[in-house]
Target: Maleylpyruvate isomerase family mycothiol-dependent enzyme
Amino acid sequence: MIDHAHDLESVRDATERLLTAVTKLDNASVTQSSRLPGWSRGHVLAHLARNADALVNVLQGRPMYADAVARDADIERDAPRPLDVQLRDLRDSAARFQEAGAAPADWSRTVELRNGVTDTAARVPFRRWIEVELHHVDLGIGYELEDLPEEFAVREIDFLAERFGGHTDVAAARLTDGTRVWRTGREADSPEVTVTGSGADLLGWLAGRRDGSPLTVHGGPLPILPPL
Model:
């Protein structure tokens, strides 16, 4: 069972780690490239702030974004802002998300995200946790996949393995970090390949943050994953 209150606290902790790290930047470094193609660090920070507000919309029964064009335009508008403005926006939008999450609600209800994707309201805090942790890594400022909290890393591998589960274009795969095992890919009586590696490398591959080259694959080539 998803514990949304626990996840809200985890989001708060992850946000504080992010803010502490970003505070050490300067205006010039905010304009430099992030690890996401075509995005500066300012784009990443702007996206994080706007995503918090978008998930408030989700929790309060409104469309997550007006449309894809408006979402992208908001990020482009906010990306060039100086560091102090970025930090203020991150803090304020994070506070709005926490306030929305603290409101009495039916957490078992179904909510709608982008592109018609639906989920239970209780999973929204975890989805926000994903955004904060992975985009902290994307900033390229010293926070790596190996630094992610273990609970988060395991749950994110669970989440992504489930997301690619049943995908007919992904080979049926058994994933393992030597301790835990996940299944993903198309339906099959037995896995077509076994992929072994550290939790960080498995997560990096599944999340599109690493190419999977450190992983060991038996039974065939490393499966090609569709974009997230």
Summary: The longest strand covers residues 173-176. The chain has a mean pLDDT of 97.
